[in-house]
Amino acid sequence: MISEPVIMVNYKTYRESLGDRGMELTRAIERHCTKNWVVCPQAVDLRDVVKGTELPVFAQHVDGIEPGSHTGHTLPEAVVDAGAMGTLINHSENTLELWEIEKVVSLCKGMGLMTVVCANNPAASAAAAGMGPDFVAYEPPELIGGDISVSTAKPEVVKEAVERVKRVDANVKVLCGAGVKNGDDVKIALELGTVGVLLASGIVKSKNIEETIQDLERYL
What we know:
The chain is of the alpha/beta class. The chain has a single domain (about 5-215), classed as Alpha-Beta Barrel (TIM Barrel). The chain is about 40% helix and about 15% strand. The chain has an 8-stranded parallel beta sheet with strand order 2-1-8-7-6-5-4-3. Helix 5 (about 120-130) runs parallel beside helix 7. It is globular, with a radius of gyration of 16 Å.
């Protein structure tokens, strides 16, 4: 299980997180963090990152497929074999249909793979909770990668997303993402009822990893 509060870092496909640079980034996070962090490296680097760190490692995506003829897809079983603990699902940059999300969550459960279903509004967050993932990550797409965090720009909507998720399944935990950059964003996200944050460029593109980590952990 992942301890709370949690800071989850999506490496996306930034150059700064590719190959050896991704491994260096992971080691820097592990070296400087004092709280609970999860890293989500690029798919081709997943196995190497798992072998090179004690941090929990998640995939960025899996498809709702079983072993067979599925060229170009990401097999959940392969992610488990690589040693990952979990996976993101339905990120706004790689969305799935509702039936696909449900199938992926079900497959992952059967393999003991933890799931983080991303959702772009409170209604979608509630629908995702109904599928029984471990986490729902609420991320308005228009704020992803920007300078204004969702916890600052739309705090009332974050709170609504948390409440709607909990009404559906109290065991599903909520993360907050989109534009998260500093400790103030993390503090507000936790005050609104989430168990942590999902961020990307705020860490991956940071010029000073140690200072950024200390800032993000400031109120934890």
